Fold this sequence. Notes:
Blueprint: H1 4-9, H2 18-23, E1 29-36, H3 37-40, E2 55-61, E3 66-70, H4 73-82, E4 86-89
Parallel strand pairs: 1-4
Antiparallel strand pairs: 1-2, 2-3
Amino acid sequence: MTSDKTTAAIDRPEHTDTDFLAALGAGTIAYIRPVKAGDIAETVPQARELPPATMLYALYGADGDPILLTTTRELAVAGAQEHELTPVSLH
């Protein structure tokens, strides 16, 4: 008889290579993530002009490179489609 712990450990990698994950979906997938203007004000100068609690939507390539920042999720989806990318949401 095997325990669930033994079975669960099989086929599970000890660590995941971040370069491998970044390459998954490269050129085909984009991630949409809600962000507050105050949380990105240091890296996005335009966000400093908005109240810190303003909700924005960031579109990132599969490798984490930023593509665009917008005020609605719908515009982020349209931006992904314009770049011929499949959008997925991150929370």
